[in-house]
Amino acid sequence: MALPIYTVGFVSWLVGFVIFAAVAGFTLSLVFQLAHTVEHAAFPMPDEITNKLEDEWAIHQIKTTANFATHNKVISWLVGGLNFQVEHHLFPKISHVHYPAISKIIKQMCEEFDITYNEYPKMRYAVASHVSYLREMGRK
Q: Domains in the chain: how many in total?
């Protein structure tokens, strides 16, 4: 922080910092809300007696996350592949450039084992689903 403040001055640095933090915060919150708080994502509760979840880890990841705008290269670039949230959860140490290929394999396996794969083809569909989910939660 010292070098930018020294270079451009405190007020200019502060304005730039606030703008950057606001844009980054909005982007991150939007990505994570569209990937986790949508209508078709599951929110399983553990069994009251055993305190364990019904599904194994990988299936739990698939059921509780959703992808959006996976064919939009601009959005994929802007969010660093986090629009492939299912693949990100299953393979967090693999580069996001491989997520489109991996997603095809995961979709095929989900079909084979009758597991719902949550994906919104366009970002606006994910936003609409998120708003609908929030509306539904507000009514409860």
A: 1
